């Protein structure tokens, strides 16, 4: 007998009694998918959230980066539709909203693995393709994984697409999806969703803001926060340090860092697309001795996916990324996260640093701060229970790449133009109140070899 069909009344799930996934009343199809994907023992967030979600509760799930939140919502989705014997004729039964295309794609791939024995259809609605290609299939898709903007576009423009039968809504990286950047889009999406549904919200930095939650009309949500009482908010296997570095030394510092970690897999976070485009070109010319890859929001969709896949596969490489790679992405075996530009807040720091030290693995994070950023950022990190130590750099050990950069710039008009555009952007950001002082902007001009 299939436990999921017979044990519809699962009101009695006791998370402390769960040791393997098979202790949950889940279908054989899901169990088989989990075994095939080599998942046996649930993590803490999975033990607690899956049990409650199977009982139909709305959930606010919070757990550290890399602790397995994805399966904590994918398993309940599969079970919810399975119990209702959902078919392709029933259309969309579950909707997962992700802040970035890459995260949506990654979740889709995990769903394909663990849900492969079910008959549901699943689809990615993330843009980058023609709308009509997606429109042809969207109304026949049972589980949709999407980014907010593209979903709303279909709600507005694909006439036969409707969400009236939706059973379960998941917001992955919920605090990000509910923040100002997506507010208007999300409000418009929610208007199209039925009020009667189950809603699951997950993030490593969960929102408890009542206003946000009211927008989603959650019903008595269960707050599942497995690490709330932990001493630190970041994984125990993550070693975290920061250095204070003058702006004119940042590129030298990056080059020297890469030279010292040639066999490692590293993500370097920057704050703007223009800066990253310029530095990528510059580092391709500087040849640090390790493949340099690039991921930012202004890349074409194909290129983005190719970079994402390449970095997943490589054993040693460096990925220059903006914050589109900060949340949720599960690149295998990343050794280091280097935040060369200060994150906008402590939550962004936590997500960026969490790209390493995932699921029981170790990892190291290094934050680079300008002298003007140190006090404010360190205070924010302390308040968020992030254990971070200051280490000193020996300026004498930094390789000076300025002369090389200047000679490339002289050779290459395009590189020079990029450098000037970056400088302009930084100046504009400066006038909008970011922390760069005029002197630092001039220094950056020097750094970029202008
Ligand atoms: N029960 C499990 N057993 C073994 N590995 C697991 C288990 N659950 C998750 N993992 C693995 O742990 C890694 C992290 O999982 P996941 O990406 O879901 O973390 P997360 O909590 O969503 O992280 P983030 O906050 O960064 O989004 C993945 O590689 C996943 O395959």
TrEMBL record:
The keyword Nucleotide-binding applies. Pfam families: DEAD (PF00270), Helicase_C (PF00271). GO terms for molecular function: ATP binding; hydrolase activity; RNA binding; RNA helicase activity. The keyword Amino-acid biosynthesis does not apply. Keywords: ATP-binding, Helicase, Hydrolase, Nucleotide-binding, RNA-binding. It catalyses: ATP + H2O = ADP + phosphate + H(+). Its EC number is 3.6.4.13. Residues 50-224 form the Helicase ATP-binding domain. It comes from the Eukaryota. SMART domains: DEXDc, HELICc. Residues 250-402 form the Helicase C-terminal domain. CDD domains: DEADc_DDX10, SF2_C_DEAD. The Q motif is unique to and characteristic of the DEAD box family of RNA helicases and controls ATP binding and hydrolysis. Belongs to the DEAD box helicase family. DDX10/DBP4 subfamily. RNA helicase. This is ATP-dependent RNA helicase.
């Amino acid at each position: 007998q299939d436990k999921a069909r017979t044990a519809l009344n699962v009101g009695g799930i006791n998370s402390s009694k769960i040791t393997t996934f098979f202790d949950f009343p889940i279908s054989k199809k899901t169990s088989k998918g989990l075994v095939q994907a080599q998942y046996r023992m649930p993590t803490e967030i999975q033990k607690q959230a899956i049990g409650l979600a199977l009982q139909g509760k709305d959930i606010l799930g919070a757990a550290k980066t890399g602790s397995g939140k994805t399966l904590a919502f994918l398993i309940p989705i599969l079970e919810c539709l399975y119990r209702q014997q959902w078919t392709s004729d029933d259309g969309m039964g579950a909707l997962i909203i992700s802040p970035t295309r890459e995260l949506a794609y990654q979740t889709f791939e995990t769903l394909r693995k663990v849900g492969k024995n079910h008959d549901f259809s699943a689809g990615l609605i993330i843009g980058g393709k023609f709308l009509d290609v997606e429109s042809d299939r969207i109304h026949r898709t049972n589980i949709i994984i999407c980014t907010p903007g593209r979903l709303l576009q279909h709600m507005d423009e694909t006439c036969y697409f409707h969400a009236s039968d939706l059973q379960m809504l998941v917001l992955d990286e919920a605090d990000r999806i509910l923040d100002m950047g997506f507010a208007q889009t999300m409000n418009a999406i929610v208007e199209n969703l039925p009020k009667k549904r189950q809603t699951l919200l997950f993030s490593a930095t969960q929102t408890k803001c009542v206003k946000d939650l009211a927008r989603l009309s959650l019903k008595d949500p269960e707050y599942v926060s497995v690490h709330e009482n932990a001493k630190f908010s970041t994984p125990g296997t993550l070693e975290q340090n920061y250095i204070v570095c003058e702006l004119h030394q940042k590129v030298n510092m990056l080059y020297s860092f890469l030279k010292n970690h040639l066999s490692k897999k590293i993500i370097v976070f920057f704050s703007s697309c223009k800066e990253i485009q310029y530095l990528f070109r510059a580092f391709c010319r500087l040849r640090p001795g390790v493949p340099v890859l690039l991921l930012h929001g202004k890349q074409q969709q194909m290129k983005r996916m190719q970079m994402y896949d390449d970095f997943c596969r490589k054993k040693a490489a460096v990925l220059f990324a903006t914050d589109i790679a900060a949340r949720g992405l599960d690149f295998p075996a990343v050794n280091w996260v280097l935040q060369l530009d200060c994150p906008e807040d402590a939550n962004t720091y936590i997500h960026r640093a969490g790209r390493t030290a995932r699921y029981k693995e170790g990892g190291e994070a290094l934050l680079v701060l300008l002298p003007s950023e140190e006090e404010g950022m360190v205070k924010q990190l302390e308040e968020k229970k992030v254990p971070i130590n200051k280490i000193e750099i020996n300026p004498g050990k930094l390789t000076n790449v300025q002369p090389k950069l200047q000679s490339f710039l002289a050779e290459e008009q395009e590189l020079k133009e990029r450098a000037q555009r970056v400088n302009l952007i930084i100046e504009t950001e400066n006038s909008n109140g970011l922390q760069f002082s005029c002197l630092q902007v001039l220094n950056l001009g020097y750094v970029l070899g202008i």
